[in-house]
């Protein structure tokens, strides 16, 4: 068995990638189970408080009319959720936050990341170059960096509640790449035979990883913001509306929308700095390859559009006071533009950057 055979290495890369996808799927399930357990714990807290109030002695006309239960339940929902929100605002995890399903989810994610890394490295050795010269390879490397960013951030901040969102996103992107974008190993086109391929594309992939994590935080922020608004409305809102808003009950155990927004903002700033370097490095590379810094190529235009969206997001939040749902929507629009640039522009728009390999 010749382990230096490119075809054999590429086959092993595929096996490792499919194995990573299977383990990512198991991690996704484990994280989803943890969210379900969070919802159950919130229900248990509310049920215990309701029992306490129902058992309390009534007074006055309400007691004589036997209406203690009717009056107590609607008035209780607000304090209970505010108590849970107080824990949330103090970033205090509820006991079930250290559940076995959460630990299993993180362990499986690390295992899947190792398989993912092995698949990417073997693809690089099979091609005898960096593994990000076409759509399939860029998706493989980009998703690897998304997961790398997530695991590194976990060392500093407990964002394990994002496990479902991040593993789900990576699993979908890898599935699309493996089924729709896969190509055999091929030599580099002349324009890509440059050291800028290593620098420009790697930094762009790292920026995408930052934007993906910011996107996940902004999505959860929107859900949390909506829940908090209904908690503040309390019993003044129609009962059906409150029940609908609080259906995702695990949100009561997560950080507040303000905390999530601050985290997303800091991560998106790092991504924006990396994307700015990507834009500058791309211009320098374009001058060396094509003799001009800017040519209004479709890929160049969309890279600039993404930069403008995130620049507007940072500026609006810092100077115009765009907080809450408006800043979250700008971050989500920015990442949607990143995905459009990757999945649509690379495939359906022809230009000097048409290196999809398809």
Structural class: mainly alpha
What is the string of SSEs from the N terminus onward? HHHHHHHHHHH
Overall outline: flat
Count of the separate structural domains: 1
Tell me the fraction of residues in β-strands, as a range.
under 5%
Low-confidence stretches: 49-56, 58-78, 84-97, 235-246
Please compute the radius of gyration using only Cα atoms: 25 Å
What is the percent of helical residues?
A: over 70%
Q: What is the number of helical segments per DSSP (H or I, 4+ residues)? A: 11
Q: Gap between N and C termini, in Å?
A: 31 Å
Mean pLDDT: 78
> What is the β-strand count?
0
Largest sheet: none
Question: How is this fold's topology laid out?
Answer:
Layout: H1 6-55, H2 60-64, H3 68-89, H4 100-127, H5 135-156, H6 163-181, H7 195-233, H8 239-245, H9 257-290, H10 298-319, H11 325-348
Properties at a glance:
76% helix; mainly alpha; 358 residues
Model description:
The protein has 358 residues and is mostly helical. The protein has one domain (6-348). Helix content is 76%, strand content 0%. The protein has eleven helices and no strands. It has helices spanning 6-55, 60-64, 68-89, 100-127, 135-156, 163-181, 195-233, 239-245, 257-290, 298-319, 325-348. The two termini are 31 Å apart. Residues 49-56, 58-78, 84-97 and 235-246 have low confidence and may be disordered.
